[in-house]
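Researcher: Please translate sequence to structure tokens.
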Amino acid sequence: MLRFEPPKLPSPPKLKEEDQRIFLSDPTWDKIAVYFTTNHQRYRENIVIPRGPAPVHIVTNEEKAMQTFMESCVFKSIFSGVLGYGLGAALGLFSSSVNPNVAAVEQQQTARQIFREMKVTTLGYAKNFATIGLLFSAMECTVESYRGKTDWRNGTYAGGLTGGLIGLRAGVKAGVIGAAGFAAFSAAIDYYMHS
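Model: Translation complete:
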């Protein structure tokens, strides 16, 4: 059986510096042409921009800085606290308007007294929800940053820490029960949202 071996080709000759010009034969004009036609600010090689149905948008440094700020734990925590405050105020207003007042049986209340009670109830709900939102978001972001993963355990751990901290105001036993309950609730909500 005969084997076919391709002939060995000679390697290309090395070019001298004056023969490596790109545009023009004169080296001075060639350097000028290279200077004006290439990008000296940023050197990038093999940029691949995937195409999609929408036009491609290259993110600027300002947009990257804004994204970094909005993804920070501080911003997420404050934002959750503000949203919790608003949700708590809405729920407090609703519950105070629906809640039957025991004092109304004994004496007739004025509109000012009713509005004062509604304000106290609304602010109480708002502060509680803001505290829960701020604590939970801060704990979850911290746990996620520490673990370096995004999964269901982050919410469960954060729920346990948040429930424990809130429950500690009533004692150690209440803190343990609060931690277990809030962790189970967080795990159930995370499971429901991701399934």
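Researcher: Any highlights?
Model: The two ends are 64 Å apart (CA to CA).
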